């Protein structure tokens, strides 16, 4: 079985998507790219996460052609493919329909610097990309454009795209985007949220880079939330 490690990780993190309520039903998808082989493992479409096994995960090349696996890959395969083609620093992608962040996406709002942990995404905001039909090249191209050197964005009237150098980073970012979206929406209900300045966010981004180096040394990372 090709990319056995990556397939095991995809299956495990898909189950985490369900238990953490970052998505509902069979929505959302996860992939991991192995740059040495030029192949990526992606979750299949329309399969219950609780029943998903490594054998269900599909392996594709960068032309989005299936090279191993007996199931149909996620309908968002082009979204994942485009991230890997466009960015050498992205090796994992997590796409969710998490409720709070998707609420912002339905409103067409960016997620501003309401909390410093947004810096984990590599920028001062989590921007909202304009609506494009799911599963299309247009969605993939627009999403990558709105990443713009960062690791996360919202997809208007759709959901969340979180990426990273590894699956731990991408999944953690998906969690933190949902956390910050929840905080932002709650704050707006009772007042006007304080938004951190660009200078404050630049400091936070630099601090996260320090923690990333620590992660490499310790092989373990927990965002300083």
Topology (SSEs and partners):
Blueprint: H1 4-19, E1 29-34, E2 39-42, E3 58-61, E4 66-68, H2 77-86, E5 92-96, H3 99-107, E6 128-129, H4 137-147, E7 152-155, E8 159-164, H5 167-190, H6 198-218
Parallel strand pairs: 6-7
Antiparallel strand pairs: 1-2, 1-5, 2-3, 3-4, 5-8, 7-8
Helix pairs in contact: 2-4, 3-5
Please characterize this protein's 3D structure:
- The chain is an alpha+beta fold.
- The chain has one domain (4-218): L-fuculose-1-phosphate Aldolase (3-Layer(aba) Sandwich), CATH 3.40.225.
- It is 40% helix and 15% strand.
- The protein is built from six helices and eight strands.
- An eight-stranded mixed sheet has the order 4-3-2-1-5-8-7-6, with helices on both faces.
- Helix 2 (77-86) crosses helix 4.
- The radius of gyration is 17 Å and the shape is globular.
- The chain starts with a helix and ends in a 7-residue tail after the last helix.
